Amino acid sequence: MWFRVLGPPEIGVAGRLLPIRRRRERYLLGILALDANRAVSVHRLGELLWCGSPPENARRIVQSHVARLRSVLGAHESHRHGVTLETNGYGYVLTTDPDRVDAQRFQTLLARATASDLGVRAGLLRTALDLWREPLPPPPEEVLWWRIFGHLDELRATAYEDWIAAGLQLGDGDRLIPELARLVGIYPTRERLVEMHMIALEAAGRSADALAAYARAHAVLSGELGIEPGPRLRERQLAILRQTGRADSERVARVNGAAASTLGAPARPAPAPQRSRSSVAPAETPARRDTVRSATGDQPAITVTAVPGTDTPGTVGTSRAALARHWAGGEAGAFVDFAQTWHAAGQPQRAHALYTSALVLATIGHNRYEAARARIGLGHVCAAMNEPTQARQHWAHAIELYRALDLPDDHALHACLDLIPMVRTTDADGVPPVERS
After folding, report:
1. What is residue 13's three-state secondary structure?
2. Residues 345/211, Cβ–Cβ less than 8 Å
3. Are residues 62 and 115 in the same domain?
4. What is the pLDDT of residues 6-22, one digit of tens each?
5. Residue 418 CA: distances (Å) to CA of 286, 356, 398, 402
6. Which of these, 123, 137, 153, 144, lies nearest to 48 by C-alpha position?
7. Which positions ≥6 away from 198 have C-beta within 8 Å?
8. Residue 73 sits in which domain range?
9. Which of 5, 56, 80, 245 has the most CB within a 10 Å radius?
10. How far is 101 from 127, CA to CA, in rounded Å?
11. pLDDT tens readout for residues 231-273
């Protein structure tokens, strides 16, 4: 015979649930099971079962519930399993082996995990957590469960945090990211979970997602609780921003170094550029853009079949200026991505600088697709900085760039349709209403 309270209260024997149909009787048995082998007063039972407002005849109702429970237990020969429900002076006591109660086993496993080394601790915590049943946790409308067993959910959340922490120490961060996302969805205000989610995402090379996780936590904490994230969470965000900033600086240094190398080289005599369809043009569409980026997207991977300025169209060219144009066109997309990360992190000035760099690179590389993306980003940043006129100008330029692209699908059309209202829908002052604060 077993008792379950880590979820809706249940009692069963030999793989079958006992037929306890009244909800309050199931909760009464759950209370007694949680305090197995200890007497629980009728007064406390009444306070718990009626959420602090028991009726005047609560004692008589509890007595009736106990009588029916004894009948059910007797019908299933509970005494053979060492289970009895007895009166004890001022209340009742359920006598049973504590291991038959899932909540008792849960707390025993947590205590053992605390005293164990890392690998064993992770296993014990996972075993303890697996005792819980869906839905996790019970919905808020289950007021009775939360009043009686709510403290167990706090233990469960802490156990999840300890299990995740052990997993990160064991190097399982990548595998834990989906579980962390699920847990943060259940417990959005638990900053330790959010911090570990950010740590795992950053370790997986997903700094933008880590910053987005911080932004969501900030919105929840400030919106629902009226507080700012704690110092540990803020320090984690700053650490990621600094790391991203160093990566940005290194990338900018590579751009500047390549530009200096190219522009500082002596001009090589060459015929006038002969542009033809056989020449490789800088990437201008999403499909073409993929051809000039590496598989990871971290570095450009350029395949040149012809470069304007070479002697023979269709052969591999050696013009450093042409290669620089190709490289700049590919790098523009990376700068747009970095700018989006900073904008999402609430750093519009830094985002503006990166979008501007992206626009310069895209212009050098004749990459109209990335130039349009940079213009759109600049528009949003300017709108956020209360510069609606500049925002509208950037969006108008983006529309023109999209119209000039020969895209194989309706991507440009949809982009234009999204931007046109922001450019043309103005009030008497010429400011788009969406930009007014």
Report:
1. strand
2. yes
3. no
4. 988 888 888 888 888 89
5. 18, 22, 11, 12
6. 144
7. 210, 211, 213, 214, 233, 236, 237, 240
8. 2-100
9. 5
10. 15
11. 999 999 988 888 765 554 555 455 445 444 444 444 333 344 4
Number of domains in the chain: 3
- Residue 258: inside a domain, yes or no? no
Q: How far is CA 139 from its chain centroid?
A: 22
Element holding 88 (H helix, E strand): strand 84-88
pLDDT tens-place string over residues 274-297: 433 333 334 444 433 433 343 334
Other beta carbons less than 10 A from residue 431's beta carbon: 16
Same domain, 37 and 117: no
Tokens linked to 384 = 């956020």
Helix, strand, or coil (residue 159): helix
Q: CA Rg, the chain, in Å?
A: 33
Are residue 12 and residue 84 in the same domain, yes or no? Answer: yes
pTM over 0.70: no
Residue 321 region by backbone torsions, left for phi larger than 0, else alpha for psi between -120 and 50, else beta: alpha
Please write the tens of the pLDDT for every residue from 193-223.
999 999 999 999 999 899 999 999 999 999 8
